Amino acid sequence: MAPAPDRPAAVLDGLDAVLFDLDGVLTPTAVVHMHAWARLFAPLLDERGAAPYTDADYFAHIDGKPRYEGVRSLLTSRGIELPWGDPSDSPDTATVCGLGNRKNAVFTQVLESEGVEPYPGSVRLVDALIAEGRRVAVVSSSRNAVPVLAAAGLTDRFPLVVDGLVAAERGLAGKPRPDTYLYAAEQLGVPRERAVVVEDAESGVASGRAGDFGLVVGVDRGAGADVLLEQGADLVVDDLAELLRSTPDRTDTESTAP
Q1: Which of the residues are catalytic?
Q2: Integer Cα distance of 33 and 48 in angstroms
């Protein structure tokens, strides 16, 4: 007997669209990003005699923000000032944009060589939502969202991707501002109060709350449940499979059937 199909949990009832962040929500690319940021900042901070880079810096200053904003935020936390530069700057240029481009080059190398596997629980939820006719979209600060989705085999599930490239083209402010999420809901034709924001980053959760969406779900991949709740999450889960209705074990059901 075939297992019962997954169904979204009751907390999602009456909500027509679910807007997913990518890194750390659908795919574990946050780990790749963390390694790339560490490789960028560890030697730079050491050269300047600043406090060493730690994973806590990633969550506090970088996670969820547009790449160049993350660079500036981390440098500011150490009292380091560099010119902003231009997005066309070489990765060797000592500017905010140059450092951001250097980090992106490292990330791209790792992604191409190792690929990325999506979180199984996240894929189950996405598929259950699509099966019920709900609309889904990816809203990411990353300019690498499309290649990451392709590497994870998720491209066909998301006809709408609002990433860092779209934000730049449309002049949309990045997280923690709600602009990219509001734009995604508008493109899907869904009012904000009937849309869900799913985020693992402090800044992303804050953007969902600032946009006054129907539900803001935090996914704790390391930021901490308390922190995500403080930033405005309505609820926090460790895995998106928790947002599926639980079904009884089939063997138990069969053994108690009359």
Answers
A1: 21, 23
A2: 23
Q: How far apart are CA 197 and CA 181, in angstroms?
A: 8
Cα–Cα distance between 32 and 152 in angstroms, integer?
A: 13
Q: How far is CA 30 from CA 43, 54, 160, 212, 222, in A?
A: 21, 14, 21, 26, 10
Structure tokens given for 79: 């009292």
Q: Name the pairing type of β-strands 161-162 and 135-139.
A: parallel
DSSP conformation class of 195 = E
Q: DSSP readout, 86-125? A: -TT--TTSSSHHHHHHHHHHHHHHHHHHH-----HHHHHH
CA distance 166 to 255: 54
Backbone angles phi, psi at 139, to 5 degrees: -125, 105
> What is the reported pLDDT for 1?
60
Predicted confidence (pLDDT) per residue in 197-240, tens digit: 999 999 999 999 999 999 999 999 888 999 999 999 999 999 99
Mean pLDDT estimate for the chain: 91
Single-letter amino acid code for the residue at 242: E
What six digits make up the tokens of 13? Answer: 């009832």
Which one-letter amino acid corresponds to residue 3? P
Tokens of 135: 């609309």
pTM of the model: 0.76
Q: Give dist(CA 220, CA 212) in Å, integer.
A: 21
For 184, the token pair is 């995604």
111-122: string of b/e by CB count within 10 Å (b at 16+)? beeeebebbebb
